[in-house]
């Protein structure tokens, strides 16, 4: 991708009074976390219905076996990559107000981002399906499935939303607020296929935001709402944006 597109995006970002980022599974691919769709997509290997709430309730042990493999074995060693790092630096330096993420891997927070709205929840917590108490999966342990609440022995589920569950209220409200107020939306690593998450950048566009998309592929956003498509991997594109935004400081390109 040509340098002038990076420079154009950096100029827009420098002049923006309120920029938000909307991230999908693609931003974590360079951390070793497989995406759900496309090349090496998890849904090519696993049945997405394993994340369907009625299926989980009917067969918690069967669902947990696959959930543990996907979200705890795979994710365990994942660390933030340069893309997560640059978004955290952009927030610290006033170029970014918040991240709305579909991801449940906690990597934005581990990279230092403070305002992160988790549209699909977070795998780093377990919640009791009866009393709602939150637990740390490391402390509870996942050797015996399904994990059970120490208080009432009820099944614990990961605190991310399953197909058929509502979006967490606070994340939904804050995402709508960002879509209504942001001048620029950075849309990073998402196919734009998953409802209702994919409506957030569309809402932003309707409200007049400029959409800058970072993705090596074209998506359902590209020919409908994207104003500038920075075609490439999130780590590489954001690293080059950092050079333009932080021009020569120690936060610039590593
Ligand atoms: N940098 C940026 N984008 C990338 C990279 C990369 N290195 N590698 C892949 N991508 C892009 C792909 O081109 C694709 O557009 O990331 C996207 C991954 O697609 P999905 O896994 O479908 O991610 P997303 O659209 O965010 O949907 C994820 O689906 O099953 C639900 O709830 C689940 O939150 C999850 C959602």
Give a written overview of the molecule.
The mean pLDDT is 95. With 254 residues, this protein is an alpha/beta fold. The protein has ten helices and nine strands. It has two domains: 1-32 and 79-120 and 167-254, 3-Layer(aba) Sandwich (Rossmann fold); 34-77 and 122-160, SIR2/SIRT2 'Small Domain', CATH 3.30.1600. The longest helix has 15 residues, at 60-74.
* Poorly predicted segments: none
Indicate the CATH architecture of the largest domain: 3-Layer(aba) Sandwich
Structural class: alpha/beta
Distance between the termini: 19 Å
- The total domain count is 2
What is the ordering of alpha helices and beta strands? Answer: HEHHHHEHEEEHEHEHEEH
CATH class type of the largest domain: Alpha Beta
CATH superfamily of the largest domain: TPP-binding domain
Proportion of beta-strand residues: 15-25%
Ligand types: adenosine-5-diphosphoribose
Short description:
This protein is of the alpha/beta class and 254 residues long.
Break the fold down into its secondary structure elements and pairings:
Layout: H1 3-15, E1 19-23, H2 42-45, H3 53-58, H4 60-74, H5 82-92, E2 98-101, H6 107-111, E3 116-118, E4 121-128, E5 134-135, H7 137-140, E6 156-160, H8 169-181, E7 184-188, H9 199-206, E8 210-214, E9 228-230, H10 234-245
Parallel strand pairs: 1-2, 1-7, 2-3, 7-8, 8-9
Antiparallel strand pairs: 4-5, 4-6
Helix pairs in contact: 1-10, 5-10, 8-9
Bound molecules: adenosine-5-diphosphoribose.
Adenosine-5-diphosphoribose (APR) binds at residues 24-27, 29-30, 35-38, 102, 120, 189-191, 193-194, 215-217, 219, 233-234.
